[in-house]
Amino acid sequence: xxxxxxxxxxxxxxxxxxxxxxxxxxxxxxxxxxxxxxxxxxxxxxxxxxxxxxxxxxxxxxxxxxxxxxxxxxxxxxxxxxxxxxxxxxxxxxxxxxxxxxxxxxxxxxxxxxxxxxxxxxxxxxxxxxxxxxxxxxxxxxxxxxxxxxxxxxxxxxxxxxxxxxxxxxxxxxxxxxxxxxxxxxxxxxxxxxxxxxxxxxxxxxxxxxxxxxxxxxxxxxxxxxxxxxxxxxxxxxxxxxxxxxxxxxxxxxxxxxxxxxxxxxxxxxxxxxxxxxxxxxxxxxxxxxxxxxxxxxxxxxxxxx
Length: 306
Prior knowledge:
- By secondary structure, the chain is an alpha/beta fold.
- It has one domain: Rossmann fold.
- Helix content is 29%, strand content 20%.
- It is built from 8 helices and 11 strands.
- The strands form 2 sheets. The chain has an 8-stranded mixed sheet with strand order 1-2-4-3-6-7-10-11, sandwiched between helices. Strands 5-8-9 form a 3-stranded mixed sheet.
- A hairpin with a 2-residue loop joins strand 8 and strand 9 (173-174).
């Protein structure tokens, strides 16, 4: 499954997935169930050590296979990591331990085919939120790509939301989060997230400390995002880094007519009606994917030294 969908209070929106052609010999896929991790490792042919990427899906949960195959076909060692919604992991998006991602980083650095000095993270929507949070805590991450990103850690989804818990935990407690604005009924998930984010100044501890990320960051957003305000939040990330005079700087790709979760290989087909629920139009989302994916690869190649 692949898109940065936001599931809230029982609203489940799942995207379609399909395999696409690989430009190079197919990577070897290995199922990983070690140290509490649930993942798939995609290893390109050849014995050389190579830069590695941890790939995170969105609030659909589970493992993102399509993008992992595409990144591995390009030459990366890819760990497509589930963090909920898979056997052995939480069913819902609530109090996901940030230490889990640290374990994944340590495990990946120890693999024979990985270059431990060059590890990137790629995530979309909730996966982008996680990637930015993890990179702000763990200096082992040397590049971040965040599609449809969040500038804050959000309240959890489903049961965690009803119980007032966060999406992420640290040392066994909910990490600081931006609470949903439930002062009035909401018409859509996007309405709830937009009006909640408008009050983010009241939750300063929820802001992701992107100024602590010692790595280049690429943000990709669509201005017609109907799930959450990814472009305003991307701007907030950029401004926070600028205010802290942090280098390397953030690069932001904005697509005026694209919606939510379009980032990915352009050959990956999508359901036009489904995509329109997330914002944008099918053809324009496809155009944004076709334009952004090569730029993502060039960014990663430069940052990780492929």
